[in-house]
Design a protein that fits this description.
about 140 residues; globular; about 30% strand
Length: about 140
């Protein structure tokens, strides 16, 4: 398997995102809508001083033309870490594929896929690597 080198700063951000997810899940547990978790995560990450963009629109280029609103990212932390949030029964392969596609389009090495609809949040957190990432 190809090894992806994750920058130290990205790893630091990932740790803070995971800590924030634990804080939000500790208060609410499973059962909210994805949008509510996104709002709470934005508040929690903001309290930690992390610059973030919510629902960032990621256009797509197709045959030389731009497709606006092709994708909407849940959270982009400091322009270097993608965070995709779910509140579903279970993470499906398509969720990982979606996150990987975003990483490739953004040219980022790492994304964090978080499913809040789990009894223990540690079982809902998945690191997703962009195996095409080149430093």
């Amino acid at each position: 398997m190809k090894q992806v080198v994750i920058p130290v700063e990205t790893e630091r951000l990932a740790t803070q995102v995971v800590d924030a997810a634990f804080a939000v899940h500790r208060i609410f547990g499973p059962g909210l809508l994805e949008r509510a978790y996104q709002d709470c995560m934005a508040i929690e990450l903001g309290l930690r001083g992390l610059p973030l963009e919510r629902e960032k629109i990621l256009p797509l280029s197709y045959r030389g033309q731009t497709v606006e609103n092709a994708y909407r990212l849940d959270l982009l932390i400091n322009g270097s870490l993608l965070v995709e949030l779910k509140a579903v029964e279970s993470i499906l392969p398509i969720h990982r594929v979606q996150t990987t596609t975003y990483l490739k389009l953004l040219k980022l090495p790492l994304g964090i896929l978080i499913n809040f609809n789990v009894p223990l949040i540690k079982h809902g957190i998945t690191r997703v690597l962009n195996l095409d990432f080149q430093t």
